Amino acid sequence: MFAASAFVDISHIQNEGYLSRKVARDVLFRRVKVLLELNCEDDSLSTVQALLLLIHWNDLPQSEKDASHWIGVCLSLAISIGLHRNSGSSALTSSEQKMRRRTWWSVHNHTRLTVENLLSVIRMQEDREDRNLFDISMITLSDFQLHIFPPELRAVVDDCEVLRDIEYQKTQAVVFIEKTKLCQLSRFSSILNRVQKIVCGEDIGNGQAHSKPRSTQGEIEEHRRWQLQLPVSANHHCPMDLVPTDCERSIYLHQSWLRLFYLGSLYAACCHETEALGGDLAVPRHDSRSALAEKCLLDITDVFDEIDCLELSEQLPCPTSALLIFALAYHRQPCHTSAQIGTLQGSRSLHKCWKTLCKLKESSCLAARMATAVEGASCDELWESISAIYLPLNKK
User: Fold this and answer.
1) How far, in Å, are 115, 204, 217, 230 from residue 119 at the CA level?
2) Residues of the chain with pLDDT under 70
3) Pseudo-torsion of CA 224, 226, 228, 230, nearest 10°?
4) What is the per-residue pLDDT across 231-285, written as a single tens digit (0 to 9) for each?
5) Which of 178, 196, 313, 345 is the most buried (most CB within 10 A)?
6) Global pTM?
7) CA pair distance 362, 58, nearest whole angstrom
8) What is the phi-psi region of residue 130: left when phi exceeds 0, alpha when psi lies from -120 to 50, beta otherwise?
């Protein structure tokens, strides 16, 4: 119920007596927290899945324990029950093995995406022992149980399209598989952490210190190869129908998030070399990587604009807020120098990004903090700090 409260129509929340979505989420979170602390669930796998629902899309309500705490609990519990190991030789049924694999890769992906340093201890142990502690193989389509659900089950959720259409189920599975592959390449958590630290004053950790060294150009090529092999069903494209169904909107949102994740990861790859040397995430303005980073920011802006046109901005996952802030910093530059070419277009893009960021305030602490700083006109130093970690250094 807590996870659904972020997406369900506000009328359902009001019918239950809650004044707003935020109030409902605060109350439901406190209830979930009590259940978790009392250890009411005997099945550890169910607890891992519950923790994933708690943290995987939206920020948590303000509390004494942030999302990184619950991610750590989730990862530790997942490892304690062996989700990270190959269970092929166990007495588990095929269905149970597939469920465990899907759950593990969901935990792993979210950790790599947001608080990657939680995996660094295991990575260090792997280096010491010269062995791979994660012997589970990459998830494949065969790990998903695709089938048409019976009418009596579909009736519980108003005959949801996904439950009666195998192709929709397959598309969602393919998007997840491709995101998992991208997580193996990505340094997205590094830029997410930098923005989080600047805007919120919180350091959620950057686990890149223990990553195996890779050249910047090599990382860029790996990302391009990932993009070239991307299946058609996972590609980001706007729905053809003028009034897309709820299922089409959902699939589009996940495809769009995958596209944003790719662009953010490619952007981070461009930044990585100077970051590793201890400097800002910036490269010389004439460097080819600067041009690539600029293209990433422009493409990110276009995707956000398209998402907003379909009125889906409020359903974006929280990590997208960091990308919006980078886009804002980029488009803000020409607004201060009227002589620069493209000032009008840059101003329009700036306001589009700002509009989307404001829509994320309720679900994203990062977006809320940034919006408060901008609205309070106390953000000059903040903009300077953000500008120090984004590419390119200047727009021509």
Assistant:
1) 8, 13, 25, 27
2) 57-66, 88-90, 117-133, 159, 202-215, 272-286, 334-343, 376-380, 383, 387-396
3) -150
4) 999 999 888 888 888 889 999 999 999 999 999 999 988 876 544 444 444 444 4
5) 196
6) 0.86
7) 9
8) left
Where would I find the beta strands (DSSP E) of 205-331? none
| Paired tokens of 315 | 């359903």
Give pLDDT tens digits for 149-199. 888 888 877 768 888 889 999 999 999 999 999 998 888 888 888 888 888
Residue 222 to residues 47, 98, 216, 266: CA-CA distances in angstroms? 35, 28, 10, 9
Q: Whats the size of the chain, residue-wise?
A: 396
Contact 136, 84 (CB under 8 A): yes
Give residue for tokens 């807590």. 2
How far is CA 384 from its chain centroid? 25
Place of tokens 């995958």: 258
Contact residues for 310 (Cβ-Cβ < 8 A; gap 6+)? 238, 239, 244, 249, 252
